[in-house]
Amino acid sequence: MDKRIVISRKLPETIISPYVNTYMITMWPDEDKVMERSSLLKDVSKADALLSMLTDKIDKEVIDHAKQLRIIANMAVGYDNIDVDYAREKGIVVTNTPDILTETTADLTFLLVLATARKFVQANRYIIDGQWKNWSPFLWAGTDVHQKTIGIVGMGRIGEAVARRAKGFNMDILYHNRNRKDKAESELGAHYVSFDRLVEKADFVVSMTPLNEHTKDMFNEAVFKKMKKSAIFINTSRGGVVKEKDLYEALQNGEIAGAGLDVFKNEPINEKHPLLQLENVTALPHIGSATMETRTAMAQLSLENIDLVLKGKKPKTPVN
Ligand code: DGY
User: Fold this and answer.
1) From ligand 1's centre to the CA of 206, what distance in Å?
2) Which of 42, 59, 88, 153 is most buried, judging by how many CB atoms fall within 10 Å of its CB?
3) How many CA atoms lie within 13 A of 289 on its CB side?
4) Which residues are CB-contacts of 272 (< 8 A; sequence separation ≥ 6)?
5) Which ipTM score applies to this complex?
6) Contacts of 287 (CB under 8 A, 6+ apart)
7) Are 202 and 232 in contact (CB under 8 A)?
8) Locate the D-isomer specific 2-hydroxyacid dehydrogenase NAD-binding domain: which residues (predicted)?
């Protein structure tokens, strides 16, 4: 046992146990708290592999502390928390966990579409708070989802999985992406449109795009102004693609009708954040891929990638 794996969050023993006789494993003891920066810097200096979470900022400083690191295995499909270019420069492999979370994240995205449209959370709170005294014709009346137009920004694997769900609801599917998706067009009847046309036409504008220098703040005042007043904005990708102040104003001024958000610029978002004070916002704590099955598979894939690289083999899901 001469190789060391650092895991930045407490993971279940059952997931770690296949590796405990092969590697020295240093695991942050807390499931709920981010590994302290000082511990990360100290531990990474002796690590051959790092299993990181999307909450860990793996920047130049961390990478420079690493003396013998061969792989950073991020337990997420997104890897905007890692300076991938710098890792590449230093010969460190970066891996993510695509595919296995696609359907789970699409389920949650569609849940947000439905929950926001039908005011699910608000209506649930209303009954629990003992406010339901009478049935009335327009009590918590929301808006239909079936036969409406969904606009998917970022037609990757998860975007396509959302489109499949939308097809089941007889929705018109618009999408915008760097490149055309022939299969989504022929099998799902999805229509490729410009970003501007998508935001103008869609009843549900769904952000599925990764965060990078091209997508940062792409949903901003000008874009919200182009949307229908009845439009609902859904984001399950990354908070950084949205100018939250502009989203707040659009929601507050009735420029759009509602938002369903699983991700925020700064996570965890403070409960006093203006967005959370709005009645027309349905918010979740970044749980897109959070099912027992999928999170287990993500942790296992991260460890498999580490094991492969430490044995001198190719990882299953490299990003660089
Ligand atoms: C990811 O894996 O990037 C997701 O955001 C997790 O829910």
Assistant:
1) 16
2) 153
3) 20
4) none
5) 0.93
6) 108, 262
7) no
8) 111-288
